[in-house]
């Protein structure tokens, strides 16, 4: 399903520029997490092209010519998708996007919480590949539940930061920032548990298919 590739061959700046040029409905960090979820999905019918269509709400940009279309899909597939596929290896785990550390403030806490909430939304959307329900290995199922709890915490912090009064104890905000960064590490652990669990499940399904496939008659 997911092509194994080398490290991302197109830099983040080029991918961000492409998403902006073609009015992608989602920010880069969310697209990145969503692709990672779709790479990990146990849905054997999922494909990168289907996920790109879904990201653009099934309304892809209009291209002027074949070359422009090839550049568009090449950047997303050979650049971003194949670069993310290496994170199926235990030795190269997936990391959430880096959010530049800034002095504790409502704006910083809100931004950090929003990015993490959008990333978890994206990962789960990609993992379910457009379906409402899906069977997962038990370890992945547990991890998905934990991600749901973390998503709720990030969303609550995002809302509190937006509605917070003008003055708040700086030390309290610093503690909250540390807490969000710890939750980020937990989220990464659970995401990689899902990636590894689903990778093993896909391998088992492929092995079963090969064993059960009827032989070719000559």
UniProtKB/TrEMBL annotation:
Report the domain of life of the source organism: Bacteria
- What is the protein name given in its UniProt record? Uncharacterized protein
Q: Which organism is it from?
A: Meinhardsimonia xiamenensis
């Amino acid at each position: 399903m997911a092509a194994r590739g080398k490290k991302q061959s197109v830099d983040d700046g080029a991918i961000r520029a492409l998403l902006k040029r073609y009015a992608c409905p989602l920010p880069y960090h969310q697209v990145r997490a969503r692709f990672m979820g779709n790479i990990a999905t146990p849905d054997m019918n999922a494909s990168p092209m289907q996920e790109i269509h879904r990201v653009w709400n099934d309304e892809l940009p209009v291209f002027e010519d074949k070359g422009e279309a090839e550049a568009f899909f090449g950047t997303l597939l050979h650049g971003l998708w194949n670069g993310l596929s290496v994170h199926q290896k235990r030795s190269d785990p997936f990391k959430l996007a880096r959010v530049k550390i800034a002095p504790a403030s409502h704006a910083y806490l809100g931004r950090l919480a929003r990015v993490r909430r959008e990333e978890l939304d994206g990962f789960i959307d990609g993992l379910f590949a457009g379906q409402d329900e899906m069977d997962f290995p038990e370890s992945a199922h547990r991890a998905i539940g934990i991600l749901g709890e973390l998503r709720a915490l990030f969303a609550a912090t995002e809302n509190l930061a937006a509605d917070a009064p003008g003055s708040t104890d700086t030390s309290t905000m610093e503690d909250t920032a540390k807490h969000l960064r710890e939750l980020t590490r937990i989220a990464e652990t659970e995401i990689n548990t899902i990636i590894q669990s689903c990778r093993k499940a896909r391998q088992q399904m492929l092995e079963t298919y090969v064993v059960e496939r009827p032989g070719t008659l000559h």
